[in-house]
Amino acid sequence: xxxxxxxxxxxxxxxxxxxxxxxxxxxxxxxxxxxxxxxxxxxxxxxxxxxxxxxxxxxxxxxxxxxxxxxxxxxxxxxxxxxxxxxxxxxxxxxxxxxxxxxxxxxxxxxxxxxxxxxxxxxxxxxxxxxxxxxxxxxxxxxxxxxxxxxxxxxxxxxxxxxxxxxxxxxxxxxxxxxxxxxxxxxxxxxxxxxxxxxxxxxxxxxxxxxxxxxxxxxxxxxxxxxxxxxxxxxxxxxxxxxxxxxxxxxxxxxxxxxxxxxxxxxxxxxxxxxxxxxxxxxxxxxxxxxxxxxxxxxxxxxxxxxxxxxxxxxxxxxxxxxxxxxxxxxxxxxxxxxxxxxxxxxxxxxxxxxxxxxxxxxxxxxxxxxxxxxxxxxxxxxxxxxxxxxxxxxxxxxxxxxxxxxxxxxxxxxxxxxxxxxxxxxxxxxxxxxxxxxxxxxxxxxxxxxxxxxxxxxxxxxxxxxxxxxxxxxxxxxxxxxxxxxxxxxxxxxxxxxxxxxxxxxxxxxxxxxxxxxxxxxxxxxxxxxxxxxxxxxxxxxxxxxxxxxxxxxxxxxxxxxxxxxxxxxxxxxxxxxxxxxxxxxxxxxxxxxxxxxxxxxxxxxxxxxxxxxxxxxxxxxxxxxxxxxxxxxxxxxxxxxxxxxxxxxxxxxxxxxxxxxxxxxxxxxxxxxxxxxxxxxxxxxxxxxxxxxxxxxxxxxxxxxxxxxxxxxxxxxxxxxxxxxxxxxxx
Length: 733
Ligand SMILES: [Zn+2]
Ligand SMILES: [Zn+2]
Fold this sequence. Notes:
Blueprint: E1 2-6, E2 16-24, E3 45-52, E4 55-58, E5 64-65, E6 68-72, E7 82-89, E8 92-98, E9 107-114, E10 130-138, E11 144-151, E12 164-172, E13 177-183, H1 188-194, E14 206-215, E15 218-224, E16 228-231, H2 233-238, H3 240-248, H4 254-258, E17 261-262, H5 290-298, H6 313-327, H7 337-350, E18 400-401, H8 402-415, E19 421-428, H9 433-438, E20 450-457, E21 460-461, H10 469-485, E22 488-489, E23 499-500, E24 514-517, E25 531-532, H11 535-539, H12 543-549, H13 553-557, H14 579-589, E26 591-597, E27 605-609, E28 611-614, H15 624-627, H16 632-653, H17 660-673, H18 684-691, H19 695-702, H20 711-726
Parallel strand pairs: 22-23
Antiparallel strand pairs: 1-2, 2-6, 3-4, 3-5, 3-7, 7-8, 9-10, 9-17, 10-13, 11-12, 11-14, 14-15, 14-16, 18-25, 19-20, 20-21, 20-24, 23-24, 26-27, 27-28
Helix pairs in contact: 3-16, 8-10, 14-17, 16-17, 17-20, 18-19, 19-20
One zinc ion binds next to α9.
């Protein structure tokens, strides 16, 4: 007897298919197959294997059991080299090869709500958490979807809902899904609570949030998750004892498992394994590869850069600037999945149209033998003077330099952030020798290395040869070209930088436009390969796909934990210590049920979680309650009420915006060092750096607050430093 699998070998992705194992009689079988006793379903096992590149791996889907099972294949399975379905039944094993087919019917199939580590949450979400909404799609590769977080006010079904829209983000689908991170901002607690007045009867213990996703521009494609319950902190705090009881019970998983909403009622997702790498796979300073070269080109306008394959100091600054200004996330200066995704988005939104750069000879009747748009490749290695510098090089470069193009992209991005100055158009891109001769003109900068750009101020075009233009152009240069592209005026210190032609009324100066060029790049960075003539070469494909092609799949799939998109620093007055922050502090303080004298110089009388009873050692004057010793839940209560003092101290003394994790780290320090730590000037450097928004410098100062190097304090300060900088709550010690 043999066994075989019956089912669709070419299933459409996103569609459930049934597979059945059957017995087949062979010629030499002496007994009819039906005599074989029926095997219980639980002993028939199904597994899927996938071949990526050269290796087979077990697909990340649970083993299934039974004579018949259903599978639904995901988008990414259609990209695998091979997919095998293996069944073990009746003491035999057999295999079929499956070729999942891409679908022509793009749709959103399900939305999963995951925790910040991209895992199924093991507890309810809380304010201060981030939610990752993973939207699974088919037939949507590299297309944009719109994902929205809502607070449910009881009007969920309609498109024109009156529910409160908390945040909306656009994301591109890759490998069959898109992850969107939402921050449950503690500032929204009041917003949600304000709904109670409008007739919502039970807006008490929990606030209800849900996520919708739709194909960009197609509202009718909108899908929604079930509600997820977020504890209302205002409610819980009034019932502290109850809360402690809840905390000691097993974590309720039921609600969270319901949040995985498969809209087609099948559980057979085949998710791509995506562990957060905690920065392990990020590309960073000192690395060297072609992906870095491509990024050095595309982000050149963020502080200036040359197309090197090395991750230099400059690359780090460039990434930081991109993270700060474009992504609006903390600056890590490292490249991980989220940075790559953001680069793709930036390129999609801001890529330059190469057609706007074609040679001006096309406009001249006097030039009869016109170039193709980017010169004729003449005079390579021919110089006007004996000094062989680029300024005098006659070479008609084969296209426009990509670093220049992307420099203009970033310039346009920055200009879009204000409304006084507007980018209008290019007045010159390429100018070949025939065009030059017709003027006549000698400079060869515009043979692929330069662009002239025209602007307006308050809606009025800056044009004509007017003295009054000059101050405006200087303003644009100072506030955009010099500030963000680090462009050098008049090629001074221009080596390997963008340069600006001087602004003025004379020959060789610019009076109604700004001239940007890459003339001062070293020769190796002016190689022919950096000059392009068609639109495809400008973008050169998706950076994520390039990363995968070059073997950086881990990097592409890993998002740096620190990068909480949309999670901007906020006024500390709206922050409270997060549950992670509280746990962290308690882990350091350790629970003690009886009175004890702490480690400080004054040996202060203490109980519970480092809860000060009075200054100086315990002396018998303490209340009977404390003398009897307290329970852990009483200690938690004391801890919660005492914490407020330190939160207020941070809010009083630190008047600059903070991230939740920065706030938590500062509360932890004050909890340990005293509420008046800043007010009494005990850490003047730290305080000063914070007030100057020099967050990284401030974090460094933590490491000095160790009472002369007490071991436990050294470790705690390191952990607080890590929390403040990296949003990592690690209290192991
Ligand atoms: Zn031409
Ligand atoms: Zn020019």
